[in-house]
Amino acid sequence: DNSLQPILQEYKVRTYMTLGDAQEVKHELRIGVNKYPSHDFFFVNLIDMLYNERNFQEGIQLADSLISLDASKAIYWYSKSKLEMAENNYEKCIEYSDSTIARDGSFVDAYHNKGISYLNLALIMKESACFDMKDPKCVSDRKKIQDLYQKAKPCIEKVRELQPEATERWGNPLYRIYMN
């Protein structure tokens, strides 16, 4: 029965996971992603492995390949967001978070990535900002930094709304936003 093939492939992966054979796990996950792209188990686990190995570009290529098959799946876009954030590509992270949210408005991790990316951009800009009140660039820099905090605010507030018990995710970021 061909409908059971993805499940059998998943069991094969799980067996290698139990045996602790990471190389075979990765190999079988790749086979699973290629043969059964709609079975998310393979993609999610392979992306996690690539992330943990800091192999971000391969992860982005994998997500892109699956987006070309089915662009409607939020998990593919979120994976790109997560990988870009790990590479400190905050603008791309925001872009892919927006793509994730457009496909699934309750994808809390996408809101988190987007908000944290805006916060990181504000912190980076703050490091090189002008603080001489007599310099007209100072007003411009402060405005840009404030705009970034304002863009982060609804994202982190959405995380608080969707995960009120997870204060470690939204508490400090919201505090930083409110203070700035």
SS strand fraction: under 5%
Shape type: elongated
Q: Are there runs of 5+ residues with pLDDT below 50, and where?
A: none
State mean pLDDT (0 to 100 scale). 94
Major sheet summary line = none
Report the helical percentage.
over 70%
With helices defined by DSSP (H or I, 4 residues minimum), what is the helix count? 9
Distance between the termini: 60 Å
Helix-strand pattern? HHHHHHHHH
Q: What is the number of strand segments? A: 0
Structural class: mainly alpha
Radius of gyration: 20 Å
Q: Oligomeric form of this entry?
A: single chain
Polypeptide structure, described:
The protein has 180 residues and is an all-alpha fold. The chain is built from nine helices and no strands. Helix 3 (40-52) packs antiparallel against helix 4 (56-69), helix 4 runs antiparallel to helix 5 and helix 7 (108-128) runs parallel beside helix 9. The longest helix has 27 residues, at 136-162. The protein starts with a helix and ends with a helix.
Notable traits:
single chain, 180 residues, mainly alpha, 9 helices, 80% helix, elongated
Fold topology:
Layout: H1 5-19, H2 22-35, H3 40-52, H4 56-69, H5 74-86, H6 90-103, H7 108-128, H8 136-162, H9 167-179
Helix pairs in contact: 1-2, 2-3, 3-4, 4-5, 5-6, 5-7, 6-7, 7-8, 7-9, 8-9
How is this structure best summarized?
By secondary structure, the protein is mostly helical.
